[in-house]
Amino acid sequence: xxxxxxxxxxxxxxxxxQVFFARGFHNSSLRAIAKxxxxxxxxxxxxxxxxxxLLQTVFAACWAEINENLERAMAVxxxxxxxxxxxxxxLMRAVLNDYHAAEPRMHFMLTTFGYQDAVGHIIDDEPGTxxxxxxxxxxxxxxxxxxxxxxxxxAQYPVFAKAGISGAGLAQMFIAMCxxxxxxWYAAKLExxxxxxxxxxxxxxxxxxxxxxxxxxxx
Length: 219
Fold this sequence. Notes:
Elements: H1 5-23, H2 30-37, H3 41-45, H4 51-80, H5 84-101, H6 103-111, H7 115-118, H8 130-156, H9 159-162, H10 167-190, H11 201-217
Helix pairs in contact: 1-2, 1-4, 1-6, 4-5, 4-8, 5-8, 5-10, 5-11, 8-10
């Protein structure tokens, strides 16, 4: 019985993830992806226009996975305590925990091409694809979740606005802290000979909690 188109397409996508994560984009070939998927290069090209199209699809899938993980974490956090500060703290915990839970994926996203490509804005002569648009949409979904929650924090606790901190400003601080912590962890992997203490996930989360709650208590 012939394998369905959707099964083959999904197998190729999973193979592309494995090969890209292990070798990086530039060191990967369609041949290697096809071999991992158990098909031919022409079989890969039945579904994807080329390696760049595969990259865009992989990025879209990565951001979709991150969003699903964060949605689950936020739902649990709201059940624990609906205070938006608590939810924001737990969102940071989920973002940082996701790094450790999927290091190959996160290392790939941090290093491939650069940040602009990782969020679906690929600079290339080739025209954009549906996968490119999907990557952007998934990334914007990630940002919207953070900005919306930070807007809620600032609206509910006027002390932030009084201190000149807007919802957008709080969101950018949150993102910068998450990116900085993850970037530090990744840099440590590249510098194994340098012995220095690393910021832990729990320390970062406690720092965010301290900032959010102490700001209100001392506003």
